Amino acid sequence: MPTRSESSPFLLLSIRAEREAAVDEHRSVLRLGGLADEELRAVNLTHRPLGPIDLDDWSGIILGGGPYNVSDPAESKQATQRRVEAELSELIGRIVAVDFPFLGCCYGVGTLGSAIGATIDRTHGEPVGPLSVTLTAPGRRDPLFAELPRTFDAYGGHKEAATRLPARAVHLASSAACPVQAFRVGTNVYATQFHPELDAESLCTRIDVYRDFGYFDPAEATSLQAAARATDARHPPTVLRRFVERYRRRP
């Protein structure tokens, strides 16, 4: 953990058991977040338990995406997924209680949404690839999203989503197929359904890794990668970068 003379790093929590995807996620968060190596530490929850987390040790916590779905039937979940969900539930409960800086990417909608009583199900899944995100009026005023275009291109791909948010959540963005693309709880706790930690090459890596996970027809992998490279998704990483800039703590 950092000493008093060191800056407090960000903590990246990963649920990607697939090494190539996990390594690429770490690299893309560093690159697109504008972080130095020493400013980001990672725990892969599919490889080891989370262990004790003292929030005072961290500038903020970032949760990456992955193949888990909190809305999966309990009997279909393997032991590792059940452990991960229990650990994240406890941690996110504490995060919400003290309004600690948190950014959940994709899987964050399910985990944070579950913690605050949102309805999470498979009603509004979206195929892997580009999508158009539109900010709500509160989204256009939010410090992570303000000054982005009202509508911008992003990358997504998910089986579950939020169909209803509780009154305590601030709805920040939507898309044509998925009404909840981003929301905030309190002042500092965020979740996005789209991926602010992805650029085209990282999405192409994930398409290669997850081609047999049921997100898309494997025969479409090459065309999906071409569509990703043809999309100008420059704006979503601004959300990640602003999160880092807003919450980075220096000695």
From TrEMBL:
Domain Glutamine amidotransferase positions: 55-199
UniProt keywords, alphabetically: Glutamine amidotransferase, Transferase
Gene3D superfamilies: 3.40.50.880
PROSITE patterns named among the record's database cross-references: GATASE_TYPE_1 (PS51273)
Origin: domain of life: Bacteria
Listed GO CC annotations: cytosol
MF terms (GO), sorted A to Z: transferase activity
InterPro entries listed in its UniProt record: ChyE-like, Class_I_gatase-like, GATASE
UniProt-recorded name of the protein: Glutamine amidotransferase
Organism: Gordonia mangrovi
